TrEMBL record:
Pfam families: S1. This is 30S ribosomal protein S1. Residues 26-95, 104-179, 200-268, 285-354 form the S1 motif domain. SUPFAM superfamilies: Nucleic acid-binding proteins (SSF50249). Belongs to the bacterial ribosomal protein bS1 family. Keywords: Ribonucleoprotein, Ribosomal protein. The keyword Nuclease does not apply. The keyword Ribonucleoprotein applies. GO terms for cellular component: cytosolic small ribosomal subunit. The gene is rpsA.
């Protein structure tokens, strides 16, 4: 009994003489890192014995190397697990000390709707797991993005700002959302966009959806519609002929209604309507070359320049009686047509293939046969069918 008292008194004297701190299990103290190995970290805690942090007590991330997060001379907070493990060692924990402060930070972040930065570690069933200052967090697959994400593994190793949507220290449960952050950013972007939007201006955007009647383009948080008729000045049967999902495009703002959340866009250059000077470029009875673009029961459409199409009525295709345009024509075939009438206001042109042939025959009749020109040169394969 006297011996134990003597040892206790001696220890007190030693600690006082050398100005050592007293330490207690469970308290958090500061220390200076003096050595880092693959399995342990040694810390000077101003005590008669140095403290030891085992690898398992460094971080919740069991795969992390001590040297990845700790360096010699670092000043760190540690929790005392044991002032004496029976062999004179002081056992410490960095992850438990961090957890105390981290949980305080987490509750403050949740209370103030602040974002936290999380590094994604791995894909798991139903989502991904990440770490915030050594604390494990879970992000459900549904919360990884506003858009559908089919490859969660692509997030591994990346750092994201996320919002806390569920927090329970007793269950050691932290659920976060990147989707919520994107949604807030999108709403802010919408406000800015609606205030700055002007009719007639050009905007950069990305094609996000294609439907039968057009394409939807995200121009910065808000989607606008390009109607199929505004994709190009030329005839378009399917929007996919012009654009694809994911395409970066430049569009014109034609009109918008903020209350209804609608924006009308145009991909075609609305400032360069090919019909505006149609009478300057073309006159009635002029013969021009064009490309067959579409068949109808009543005739064929021929494009004489990008964005300008005319109709060759069934009766104007051939001198012979034909049941349908495809009897003598094919899509993409180049033909010569005669302009019969131009309706600039309604964007309509009446054309004739048979009159173009007859006019050319009359022209050739008065030209030297030695010049080598013949109807086959002028009309190609179609002439065979129109003799």
């Amino acid at each position: 009994m006297e011996k134990e008292q003597f040892e206790d008194i001696s220890m007190d004297k030693v600690m006082k003489n050398y100005d050592f701190n007293k330490i207690y299990t469970g308290e958090i103290i500061k220390g200076k890192v003096i050595k880092v190995t693959d399995e342990e970290v040694f810390v000077n805690i101003n005590y008669f014995a140095d403290g030891i942090i085992s690898k398992s007590e460094l971080s919740e991330d069991s795969d992390i190397k001590p040297s990845d997060i700790i360096s010699v001379d670092d000043i760190i907070d540690v929790m005392v697990l044991s002032a004496d493990d029976g062999e004179g060692n002081v056992l410490l924990s960095k992850k438990q000390a961090d957890a105390v402060k981290v949980w305080e930070d987490l509750y403050n972040a949740e209370k103030n709707s602040e974002l936290i930065s999380v590094i994604i570690k791995e894909e798991v069933k139903g989502g991904v797991v990440g770490y915030y200052n050594g604390i494990r967090v879970f992000m459900p697959a549904s919360q990884t993005s506003l858009l559908y994400r089919d490859n969660l593994n692509a997030m591994v190793g990346q750092k994201f700002d996320v919002k806390i949507i569920e927090l329970d220290k007793n269950k050691n449960k932290i659920v976060v959302s990147k989707r919520a952050v994107e949604k807030e950013e999108r709403e802010k972007a919408k406000e800015v966009l609606w205030k700055s939007l002007r009719k007639g201006e050009k905007r950069k955007g990305k094609v996000v959806r294609i439907v039968k009647f057009g394409a939807f383009v995200d121009i910065g948080g808000v989607e606008g519609l390009i109607h199929i008729s505004d994709l190009s000045w030329k005839r378009v049967s399917e929007p996919s002929e012009i654009v694809s999902v994911g395409d970066d495009v430049e569009v014109f703002v034609q009109d918008f209604d903020e209350k209804k959340g609608r924006i009308s866009l145009a991909l075609k250059d609305v400032s360069k309507n090919p019909w505006d000077d149609i009478h300057i470029k073309y006159n009635n009875n002029t013969i021009v070359e064009g490309r067959v673009t579409k068949f109808m029961n009543f005739g064929a459409f021929v494009e004489i320049e990008p964005g300008v199409e005319g109709l060759v009525h069934l009766a104007e295709i051939s001198q012979e009686n034909i049941a349908k345009p495809s009897d003598v024509l094919s899509i993409e075939q180049m033909v010569r047509v005669k302009i019969l009438d131009i309706d600039e206001k309604n964007h309509k042109i009446s054309l004739s293939i048979k009159d173009a042939v007859e006019t050319s025959k009359e022209y050739l009749k008065y030209n030297d046969e030695d010049n080598g020109t013949n109807l086959a040169d002028l009309f190609g394969d179609i002439f065979k069918d129109l003799k």
